[in-house]
């Protein structure tokens, strides 16, 4: 019996290949375009170009964790295991981009501020967010029973999401030296165009990653169900 | 009166947990000793310079309480796992939150007793001059412990029943406790140095807000983590 056939929701809708190609090509285009068209910044020189990857990575990180929060709440409310799998897929992709945000920020911070790291509110809360979701993913890998794993990780995901603004607030009080948040209005149009293009490209890429991961998670779960049913003697062959 | 029944349940659980602890003693003694040992290690890492130790006293105290407390949280559920005691506890009639409240209060008493020992040793080892505002420090300690214990009791309900419980609880708990620890450490430190910047009151307010948020969140979420 095929794994998908034992899934109570039927086989998952596969992520279309064209979406992956589109995301990849658009991403390449956005990168090349923004690197070619933006002049060197008066203050930062070509270092400024780090913004085209750092800022979109941060934005999609928060987007992905927003999906974790909503999917976790929905899972606790409706007990739909697809929401649990979506939350898990989103958390994985979100952690990836969160790590990328931190590393790219450090690469920019070293030449600009002279230090790899500063203990300001945004840096620290991004790092804490990363740690919370490392914990979330570890919890998932340490719990065998799928339903228990879903309930527990939903609780951890929701509490983690509540914690992020609280960490931000507390660190803000503790110490702050980060530059004023760069808003699109403060940017010259030649920079803004590249940033917006990259934001769209990163979003597309994230959607593609999460979708693919979700698809795989659905098959994994179906295999888990099948193994469980076979162990209970429900299926023969 | 349903509520009065819940209060009786909570009291029963607190009494049960404390009796188990009182009769074995091994748990409390080892956790309190660990707290003291951690303080000694901090002293070695930061000392022997007097002023440096004095500066770091607040942070070292809180971290010693945190590191030793984590062991207490897992223990409080681990004793329930032998002989299916937790299942029996869940089968009794009554609200789930009563179980959480009972465990939380028992842990609160346990950690507070440990804190008394650790603080006494800390005052000696880190040459802390107890300031005139010590009642405020006691209040901050109670608020900080409440925050640590509420989240610790909640996360231990999961970690103690998973594989790798020793590593999972700190991994989940420490990042969540950053706001509480930061507020508690900063307030304690400010008061130890005479609160010249007048910031201790603001940190205390934040601590109260954090405690309320985390208490409400853990009480609401507990039902989802204990039933499965």
Task: Explain the layout of strands and helices.
The complex is a heterodimer of chains A (237) and B (228).
Chain A: H1 17-37, H2 51-78, H3 81-113, H4 121-142, H5 146-174, H6 189-231
Helix pairs in contact in A: 1-6, 2-3, 2-5, 2-6, 3-4, 3-5, 3-6, 4-5
Chain B: H1 2-24, H2 26-46, H3 50-81, H4 85-91, H5 96-125, H6 134-159, H7 165-192, H8 200-226
Helix pairs in contact in B: 1-5, 2-3, 2-5, 3-5, 3-6, 3-7, 5-6, 5-8, 6-7, 6-8, 7-8
Number of helical runs of chain B? Answer: 8
Described by strand count, sense and barrel closure, the largest sheet of chain A is:
none
Task: Report how far apart the termini of chain B are.
Answer: 28 Å
What is the helix content of chain A?
Answer: over 70%
The two chains with the largest interface, and their residue counts, are: A-B, 31 and 31 residues
Low-pLDDT parts of chain A are: 1-6, 176-180
Structural shape of chain A: globular
Description:
The complex is a heterodimer of chains A (237) and B (228). Chain A is built from 6 helices and no strands. In chain A, helix 2 (51-78) packs parallel to helix 6 and helix 3 (81-113) packs antiparallel against helix 6 (189-231). Chain A has one domain (17-176, 186-227). Chain A is 74% helix and 0% strand. With 237 residues, chain A is an all-alpha fold. Chain B has 228 residues and is mainly α. Chain B has one domain. Chain B has helices at 2-24, 26-46, 50-81, 85-91, 96-125, 134-159, 165-192, 200-226. The two termini of chain B are 28 Å apart. The model of chain B has no long low-confidence stretch (mean pLDDT 88). The interface between A and B is medium-sized, with 31 and 31 residues.
In short:
The complex is a heterodimer of chains A (237) and B (228). Chain A is mainly α and 237 residues long.
List the main descriptive attributes of the protein structure presented here.
heterodimer; A: 237 residues; mainly alpha; globular; B: 228 residues; 85% helix
């Amino acid at each position: 019996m095929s794994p998908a056939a034992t899934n109570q929701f039927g086989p998952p809708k596969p992520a279309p290949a064209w979406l992956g190609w589109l995301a990849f090509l658009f991403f390449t285009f956005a990168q090349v375009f923004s690197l070619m068209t933006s002049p060197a910044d008066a203050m930062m020189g070509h270092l400024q170009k780090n913004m085209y990857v750092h800022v979109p990575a941060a934005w999609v990180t928060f987007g992905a964790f927003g999906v974790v929060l909503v999917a976790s709440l929905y899972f606790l409310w409706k007990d739909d295991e697809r929401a649990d799998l979506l939350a898990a897929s989103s958390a994985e992709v979100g952690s990836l981009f969160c790590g990328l945000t931190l590393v790219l920020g450090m690469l920019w911070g070293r030449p600009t501020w002279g230090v790899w790291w500063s203990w300001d509110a945004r840096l620290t809360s991004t790092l804490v967010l990363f740690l919370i979701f490392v914990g979330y993913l570890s919890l998932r890998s340490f719990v065998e029973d799928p339903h228990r794993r879903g309930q527990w990780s939903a609780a951890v995901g929701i509490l983690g999401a509540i914690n992020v603004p609280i960490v931000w607030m507390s660190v803000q009080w503790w110490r702050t030296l980060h530059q004023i948040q760069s808003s699109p209005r403060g940017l010259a149009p030649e920079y803004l165009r590249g940033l917006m293009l990259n934001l769209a490209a990163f979003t597309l890429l994230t959607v593609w990653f999460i979708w693919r991961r979700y698809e795989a998670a659905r098959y994994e779960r179906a295999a888990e169900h099948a193994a469980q049913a076979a162990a209970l003697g429900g299926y023969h062959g | 009166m349903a509520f009065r029944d819940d209060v009786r349940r909570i009291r029963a659980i607190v009494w049960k947990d404390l009796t188990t602890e009182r009769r074995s003693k091994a748990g409390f003694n080892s956790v309190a000793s660990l707290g003291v040992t951690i303080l000694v290690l901090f002293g070695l890492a930061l000392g022997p310079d007097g002023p440096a130790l004095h500066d770091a006293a607040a942070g070292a105290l809180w971290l010693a309480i945190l590191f030793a407390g984590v062991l207490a949280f897992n223990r409080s559920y681990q004793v329930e796992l032998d002989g299916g005691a937790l299942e029996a506890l869940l089968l009794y009639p009554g609200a789930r939150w009563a179980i959480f409240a009972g465990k939380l209060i028992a842990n609160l008493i346990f950690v507070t007793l440990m804190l008394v020992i650790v603080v006494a040793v800390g005052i000696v080892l880190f040459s802390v001059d107890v300031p005139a505002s010590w009642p405020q420090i006691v209040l901050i300690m109670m608020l900080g412990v409440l925050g640590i214990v509420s989240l610790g009791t909640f996360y231990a309900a999961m970690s103690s029943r998973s594989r790798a419980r020793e590593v999972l609880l700190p991994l989940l708990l420490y990042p969540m406790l950053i706001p509480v620890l930061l507020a508690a450490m900063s307030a304690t430190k400010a008061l130890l140095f005479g609160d010249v910047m007048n910031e201790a009151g603001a940190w205390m307010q934040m601590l109260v807000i954090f405690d309320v948020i985390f208490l409400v969140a853990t009480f609401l979420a507990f039902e989802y983590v204990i039933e499965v």
